[in-house]
Amino acid sequence: MRDFIAIPISIKPMIPLLAQVGAEASISMWPFAILAICVVFIVVAITVMRVHAFLALILAAILAGILTGMEWVRIHAPDCQWLASFATDAPFFPDDLVARFMAVVKEDKADMACARSNGRMHPVFALWPVALAEDLRRAMVEEDIRKVDVWTSRYRLAVADFPAEPLDPFFNVNRLEDLEVAENLIKDKKADKGLI
Known about the structure:
Blueprint (H helix, E strand, L loop, with lengths): L17 E4 L6 E4 L7 H10 L2 H26 L3 E6 L11 H12 L3 E6 L2 E10 L3 H10 L5 H5 L4 E6 L13 H17 L4
Parallel strand pairs: 4-6
Antiparallel strand pairs: 1-2, 1-3, 3-5, 4-5
Helix pairs in contact: 2-4
């Protein structure tokens, strides 16, 4: 059974982010705080900072968001073992994403999992063991680790593969053209279901 909530940020509710709780036999989902990067901040950062420094900041923000989520879960849902993360600019990710992550972690006896489509890794779409929160904090603070793949390379990472056809489920909506494509895809889905 799934218990979701959308966490409202700005004007629209964002895609819910979930924490995986419970024993293997009983999986329930808990909401947790979401890290969102403000568009205004990005525009200001691009104009003020060099591109390299800006990219380093974004990479650090991803791991910082994962760490924040892990630490939040440890405090507010101490029985929770897993944290699932999702990118907010990819609205078509699969409904069974967390279940697929749990399956590949168990199958591969892995420490964590992330998504891949069309041969491309999607490290923000991932399942993280909350027990590694202190290790992640230490890596970020003491070792200055900023890239997701540098940190995850220390652990057994399972990969959940997803087909990219007819649509890559991790399609990013970052430009106006992407937004138009996404809107048309949503209209097509509604038409297929007889909703319009």
